[in-house]
Amino acid sequence: MAQRVTLRKRQPYNTSSNRRRVVKTPGGRLVYHHLKKIPTQPKCGDCGIGLPGIPALRPRQYATVSKRIKTVRRAYGGSRCGDCVKSRILRAFLVEEAKIVKKVIKSQQQQKVTQK
Question: Are strands 20-24 and 30-34 parallel, antiparallel or unpaired?
């Protein structure tokens, strides 16, 4: 018959914060090892993919690591992925170009009216 294993913490429920693994000690006893939660990788705010270059840590661990580990040296680094930043820059450029074209067309129409 298998050896019984008793819980080390007071919480008896099988929740995500109370995960455990049975480990055999050098003395031959079976004991529970309580496991930590698995960290998730930070995600891009636009497309939702994991941000490359930023480690997956639990929220409290980000307070202990330096800023260069938490970010990427780029505009929106650590918040948006490179493809989304590229599309944002392109969109902003095209919007500004559209405004300039609109202004040029308006001035051309004004010149036609004044010539008549």
Answer: antiparallel
Q: Which two tokens stand for residue 78?
A: 């650590």
**What's the predicted TM-score (pTM) here?**
0.72
Q: What is the mean pLDDT of residues 77-81?
A: 94
* Cβ contact 78:70 at 8 Å: yes
Query: What's 43's DSSP letter?
Result: B
For residue 74, which amino acid is it? R
User: Are the C-beta atoms of residues 42 and 81 closer than 8 Å to each other?
Assistant: no
Closest to 22 in 3D by CA, of 44, 42, 43, 5: 5
Summarize pLDDT for 86-97 with one digit per residue, the tens. Answer: 999 999 999 999
Matching residue, tokens 């010539």:
115
